[in-house]
């Protein structure tokens, strides 16, 4: 089957797949702000949610506690702090910040509020993701030679920096699978689908390319079987889909006129946090996956 015909069939499937209507009234909004709230990240126990917000002008990191129904601003800096992530098995978070003029990864101790470099290497970096152990971190780093973003790993034990992807087009948003053996990432290409999902194994070999789906902002399911993503197709732009990591079982989850970004699935797989555009801003809502 030609790539052109396969593309047409997939576009038709994306439009005809059964989906639930997603309405604001049927969701739980954690908080409303005058700015954009993006990139939610669940804690391991599902009781807290990190996200970034520009409600005060620049990007800062916030934490919402579901048990206490409270919101805490974690960073207070004139620079931009973005892409928060939980440091595994410690009461720490990691984010990227341009406080030094370019983006570097920083860690913050939630007990002491102390902020320090995650590691000391001269590479512009952002979007950290961790396996279950604390030995490695995967991130998007800027390759000065190719002038493109690529996926890297850093080993805290051996102090080793590894350049994992050497592909044409920017590679970003690495997300480590729950078992730590695969890395999901987004890649920009100069042909259809223009932005696609690819999967590496933990040491950098390319295993899967879902190159028939225009997909962005990917997220793993807790069991590592499925991938959630936001569609870039013009007719269904901003809708949420799921697909098995081998490219089968494509399913459309939302069917509405709302633009959605940055989905994140709770550790128990029962809820999804996502940013929804309303009144010219993105607010974070929680939907139940039991209904989808």
Describe it for me?
- The protein has one helix at residues 3-16, and strands at residues 28-29, 37-42, 48-53, 60-65, 70-73, 81-86, 92-97, 104-109, 115-117, 125-129, 136-143, 148-155, 160-163, 171-176, 182-188, 195-201, 206-210, 215-220, 226-231, 240-244, 251-252, 260-265, 271-278, 281-288.
- The chain starts with a helix and ends with a strand.
- A hairpin with a 6-residue loop joins strand 7 (92-97) and strand 8.
- 5% of the residues lie in helices and 47% in strands.
- The radius of gyration is 18 Å and the shape is globular.
- The relative contact order is 0.15.
- It has a single domain (3-291), classed as 6 Propeller (Neuraminidase), CATH 2.120.10.30.
SSE topology sketch:
Blueprint: H1 3-16, E1 28-29, E2 37-42, E3 48-53, E4 60-65, E5 70-73, E6 81-86, E7 92-97, E8 104-109, E9 115-117, E10 125-129, E11 136-143, E12 148-155, E13 160-163, E14 171-176, E15 182-188, E16 195-201, E17 206-210, E18 215-220, E19 226-231, E20 240-244, E21 251-252, E22 260-265, E23 271-278, E24 281-288
Antiparallel strand pairs: 1-24, 2-3, 3-4, 4-5, 6-7, 7-8, 8-9, 10-11, 11-12, 12-13, 14-15, 15-16, 16-17, 18-19, 19-20, 20-21, 22-23, 23-24
Q: Report the CATH architecture.
A: 6 Propeller
Average pLDDT confidence is: 88
User: How would you characterize the largest beta sheet?
Assistant: 4 strands, antiparallel
Number of helices: 1
Spans of at least 5 consecutive residues whose pLDDT stays below 50 are: 1-18
Query: What's the order of the H and E elements?
Result: HEEEEEEEEEEEEEEEEEEEEEEEE
CATH topology: Neuraminidase
Which superfamily, in CATH terms, is the homologous superfamily? TolB, C-terminal domain
């Amino acid at each position: 089957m030609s790539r052109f015909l396969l593309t047409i069939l997939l576009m038709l499937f994306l439009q005809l797949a059964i989906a639930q209507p997603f309405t604001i009234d049927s969701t739980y909004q954690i908080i409303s702000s005058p700015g954009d709230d993006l990139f939610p990240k669940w804690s391991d126990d599902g009781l807290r949610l990190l996200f970034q917000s520009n409600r005060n002008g620049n990007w800062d990191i916030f934490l919402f506690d579901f048990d206490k129904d409270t919101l805490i601003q974690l960073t207070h800096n004139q620079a931009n702090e973005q892409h928060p992530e939980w440091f595994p098995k410690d009461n720490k978070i990691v984010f990227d910040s341009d406080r030094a003029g370019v983006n570097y990864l920083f860690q913050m101790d939630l007990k002491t509020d102390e902020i320090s470099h995650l590691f000391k290497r001269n590479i512009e970096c952002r979007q950290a993701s961790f396996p279950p152990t604390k030995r490695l971190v995967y991130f998007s780093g800027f390759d000065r030679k190719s002038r493109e973003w690529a996926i890297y790993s850093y080993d805290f034990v051996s102090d080793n920096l590894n350049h994992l992807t050497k592909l044409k087009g920017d590679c970003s948003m690495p997300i480590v699978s729950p078992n730590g053996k695969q890395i999901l990432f987004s890649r920009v290409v100069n042909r259809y689908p223009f932005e696609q999902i690819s999967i590496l194994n933990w040491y950098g070999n390319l295993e899967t390319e879902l190159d028939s789906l225009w997909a962005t902002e990917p997220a793993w399911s807790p069991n590592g079987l499925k991938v959630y993503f936001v569609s870039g197709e013009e007719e269904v732009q901003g809708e949420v889909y799921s697909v098995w990591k081998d490219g089968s079982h494509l399913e459309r989850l939302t069917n509405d006129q709302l633009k959605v970004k940055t989905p994140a699935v709770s550790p128990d797989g029962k809820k999804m946090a996502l940013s929804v555009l309303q009144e010219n801003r993105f607010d974070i809502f929680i939907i139940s996956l039991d209904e989808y």
